[in-house]
Amino acid sequence: MLNRATRTIKTAALLLAAYFVLNIALRLVLPHALELDEAEQSFFSQYLLAGYGPQPPFYNWMQYAIVSVTGLSMGALVIPKNILLFLCYLFYGLAGREALKDEKLAAVGMMALITLPQVSYMAQQDLTHTTALLFASSLFLYGFFRTLERPGIGSYLLLGLATGIGLISKYNFALMPVAALIAVLPYAEWRRRVLDWRILAAIAVALIIVLPHAIWLRSNLEFASSDTLVKMAAGNEPAGALRIGKGIVAFVIAIIAFAALPIAIFAAAFRRNFFRALASGNRWTGMMERMMLASLAGILLIVLFTGSTTVRERWLDPFLLVLPIYFLAKMQAAGLDLSAGLRRFRPLVPVLMACVLVALGFRVVGAGLIDTYSRLNVPMADLARGMTRQAEPALVIASDTYVGGNMRLQFPGVPVVIPDFPAPGIPAYATSDGPVLIVWRGKKTATVADAVMPERFSSALAAADIAPQEIGALSLPYHFGRQGDNFALGYAWVRPGAR
User: Fold this and answer.
1) b/e string for 131-159 if b means 16 or more Cβ within 10 A?
2) pLDDT of residue 139
3) How far apart (Å, rounded) are the C-alpha atoms in residues 359 and 421?
């Protein structure tokens, strides 16, 4: 059965579709509290803007369009993400077919994406913008490889589409087309693809996609880069050789952490063939090697330039995503008989799928056993019901996008705002026609006496000459948690005309 399922891209896609349906079902049966990125999407889906903050807007635009049609629900948040991940695998398989010229190997490469933890597990756990980046990177690889092999106008337009989507998915994608250009320079035939007049069509498509956000970015560059710079910050490390050394070590560790599992799985499945193939190659493997090296060199330069001592594995997603295709291309170039290795590799696919599903479920239902709670363990629905027993709000003011996104999921017909969201046109809570609920994170053992409104809320209300009423707090047990382990929210009601 596994042999048939991985014989063609179409049959492999059917197996993957079933797998993602299981992922959707699992997420829907788990508690309907939101992860950080899910809550952000829930909150931002109220607005169609050219920019939302430190992350580019592609995923936000997609989520806004879906919620505008279907309304907000867990399904509206979960299903589109899984479709993007499925398309990531599909376009990866199509890219493999262009490079490997072998449908069966391309199908295996498509399934082999599950060996990358950043794709198989971390993207399912949260990471909406990274999911968009993975989709765009696979689409780019397909468009790029297809342009090299079949340089029709459709291939160039596809390449431009992928580039545009990638640039508004994650900013680090910008290194990918540069690395691709460097990678093809040694080959005269492929250099002609770059000089072809149809490359202008690709550039035009990419510019049209990027232009609205690029205009916004010109006036908001500091705001858009602030979060990334904080994550890359060197802390209290003084400038000098020590900080540079720590940055390089972090960079190397990130590469090892990203590549260790796929290397181990390929080595276990293909054994001697895997190691014997490392010395072989052709122009496709050479091109992929230069792509990866050029991209990693760019990341290293950024690390050194910014003085960063932190490098996260997911920053390498678009640049090392090609690894499974690369490994298969190396073994193919060596002219080895891969049948035994493929027989050993295929059973690993459903095992890895099961491991991902079990891990995603156990981190929630087993949270009390391991004494580590995910955000899905937070009793958001119960907290929302407890705060609104007396009335339903006409507007919710939240302390941050995490609280705001969760409140919006619980009250999908009610607008939710945060005090410092940097966009015009957001309704002011002082002018609401109905009761306003203000919500913020509280202490684990919250009581009414602990319900202290954050300064930015109290000062804003004082400036508007509005008196908050019914200040309180709720503290409820985590789902699947230990006795005494609670999550709390503080809240207050503001009635129209209360002064």
Assistant:
1) bbbbbbbbbbbbbbbbbbeebeeebbbbb
2) 97
3) 35
Name the β-bridge partners of 492: 438
Residue 233 is encoded by which pair of tokens?
A: 């910050």
pTM passes above 0.90: yes
* Pairwise CA distance, residues 437 & 447, whole Å: 18
Identify the CA nearest to 129 among candidates 224, 211, 214, 220: 224
d(CA 105, CA 88): 17
| Domain spans, the chain | 2-365, 375-494
Let me know the angle formed at the C-alpha of 189 by 188 and 194, rounded to the nearest 5 degrees: 90
Q: Which residues on adjacent β-strands are paired with residue 417?
A: 397
Amino acid 345: pLDDT: 92
- CA 113/CA 326 separation, integer angstroms: 12
Of 45, 52, 46, which is closest to residue 423 (Cα–Cα)? 52
| Residue at token pair 């050993």 | 344
Give me 288's structure tokens. Answer: 């992929």
User: What does pLDDT average to over the chain?
Assistant: 88
CA dihedral 191, 195, 197, 201 (to 10 degrees): 80
Parallel, antiparallel, or unpaired for β 469-477 and 416-417?
unpaired
Q: Cite the DSSP H helix spans in 366-416.
A: 367-370, 380-387, 401-410
Residue 287 tokens read as: 């091109």
Structure tokens at 404: 């705001």
Our CA dihedral for 18, 24, 30, 36, rounded to 10 degrees, sits at 140
Whole-angstrom Cα distance, residue 296 to residue 298?
A: 5
Q: Which residues contact 41 (CB under 8 A, 6 or more apart)?
A: 59, 60, 63, 77, 128, 405
* Contact between residue 50 and residue 57 where contact means Cβ atoms under 8 Å apart: yes
